[in-house]
Amino acid sequence: MTGAPADRLGSLAAEVAACRRCPRLVTWREEVARVKRASFAAEQYWGRPVPGFGDPRARVLVLGLAPAAHGANRTGRMFTGDRSGDWLYAAMWRAGLASQPTSVSRGDGLVLSGAYVTAAVRCAPPANKPLPSERDNCSGFLVREARELSGVRVVVCLGGFAWDAALRLRVALGCAPARPRPAFGHGVEYDAGPWTMVGCYHPSQQNTFTGRLTEEMIDVVFNRAVELACLS
């Protein structure tokens, strides 16, 4: 593709949104969009794969697992319209990476500065558990995104699935496999190029409601990401 990175990312987003490679995921995301949750019954669900979102000049890449069935699968923007997104964007706002602390819809005015948010899998999976084949079908999108986001210096990995995806992404970009393979953990850093990986517990309700992840803990991670990316 020719043109500026923003234009190429836009073209890639259109490809992502049109993807139908994984029959199980296509069936699930479209069923969720058709049946809907009662509280969103009046809304038109996105019901398609969800592209990444953010600043084409990003120095911080935030990598999640997959869209939530009634979150991004409804709104069409990563981590938008659910409690995980409430936590994520509030933390990014406090770190100076987001223009506002809330994210409720694609047209709510949220702008990311120095950051880009994406996921290893682009369709909402049943039980939030994509199959390895589904993960692999999506990997090419992530590789192409990473190549366009050439300014990235830090990847914040939200959960172990994202951590493993980032390690695979390194190899796909031409880096040697990590030996020994670094284990995921909250606040764990792995710096072997082309960027520093920082682990963060996923801001899911099972982590935030139980206190496994607190605001202070997620703030430490994003403040460290800003520091490593030389954005402060």
From the structure above, extract its key features.
6-stranded mixed β-sheet; 39% helix; Uracil-DNA Glycosylase, subunit E; 6 strands; 232 residues; 8 helices; alpha/beta; single chain
Task: Set out the fold topology.
Blueprint (H helix, E strand, L loop, with lengths): L4 H13 L5 H13 L17 E2 L5 E5 L7 H4 L7 H12 L20 E5 L12 H17 L5 E5 L1 H13 L16 E3 L4 E5 L4 H4 L6 H14 L4
Parallel strand pairs: 2-3, 2-4, 4-6
Antiparallel strand pairs: 1-3, 5-6
Describe this structure in words.
- With 232 residues, this protein is α/β, with parallel strands linked by helices.
- The chain has one domain (5-228): 3-Layer(aba) Sandwich (Uracil-DNA Glycosylase, subunit E), CATH 3.40.470.10.
- Helices cover 39% and strands 11% of the residues.
- It is built from eight helices and six strands.
- It is globular, with a radius of gyration of 16 Å.
